[in-house]
């Protein structure tokens, strides 16, 4: 029996890196829980996230004639979230039926969607943070102003996608379909414990440490400047910044802590059956919390702005005029 978690060990067999004592560990409780919990939560995250991010893409494509760096970043952030979300129905089905029925090609494709969407969402969030930093902190610096052209933004986007692909490639390459004792499985088959540890640490560094550090540094410089402004909107902007940092920390920190504990477990620490069960049960909870962050991205980055909200309402009135008829 394989696990059903689309993490770095996506459906990796529990018996790959454990000793004979752990092989006797009964994981039926975890598997039975995952068959109900994961499909339900993945479906909710998929529906809510897909609608929100699709609206962002539609508004940006329809109403933004001239592409600015912020808009381009927001477009690619929503696109990354959509790629990530498209993979969730496949993982939900896999968890529900306990077997991969989509074949070898789709195993690679779904893993690619998941990994590219995962890292892409984080990388473009970092890029948007740096862009805001340059706008506010270095607003009068000609060097930064020159590099905020459309051509420069395209180069930045291509570089970010290349970085995204590089970070995702190991897991995409190592994913494969196997005919296990209980049916076909799709998972990441690492060539050794070193690669597995590297992948987990990579997610810790790229998925939490670097983005959180960038956000704290940039916004710690932005907030004092906003507070010196006489505009009444400054308090709203400061609150939004605090929400961005706090939400990112709350949603992603538990997930990365559990991933790090999994590395320690695979290396022989906390090497008991109870830890095996607790870590895999905890993974399902913290993973779903982290995944739901992509549902909040449209709200935090787009819908909180009055101008963007008006464009969303304008688009919805065009699509569903009967729903917006004045009573």
UniProtKB/TrEMBL annotation:
Pfam families: 7tm_1 (PF00001). GO terms for molecular function: C-C chemokine binding; C-C chemokine receptor activity. Gene3D superfamilies: Rhodopsin 7-helix transmembrane proteins. The chain crosses the membrane at residues 41-61, 73-94, 100-128, 149-169, 198-219, 240-264. It is found in: Cell membrane; Early endosome. The keyword Phosphoprotein does not apply. It is a multi-pass membrane protein. Its main location: membrane. GO terms for cellular component: early endosome; external side of plasma membrane. Keywords: Cell membrane, Disulfide bond, Endosome, G-protein coupled receptor, Glycoprotein, Membrane, Receptor, Transducer, Transmembrane, Transmembrane helix. Residues 52-301 form the G-protein coupled receptors family 1 profile domain. The keyword Cell membrane applies. InterPro entries: CCR1-9-like, Chemokine_rcpt, CXCR4/ACKR2, GPCR_Rhodpsn, GPCR_Rhodpsn_7TM. GO terms for biological process: calcium-mediated signaling; cell chemotaxis; immune response; positive regulation of cytosolic calcium ion concentration. PANTHER family: C-C CHEMOKINE RECEPTOR TYPE 5, CELL ADHESION MOLECULE. Belongs to the G-protein coupled receptor 1 family. This is G-protein coupled receptors family 1 profile domain-containing protein. It comes from Silurus meridionalis (Southern catfish).
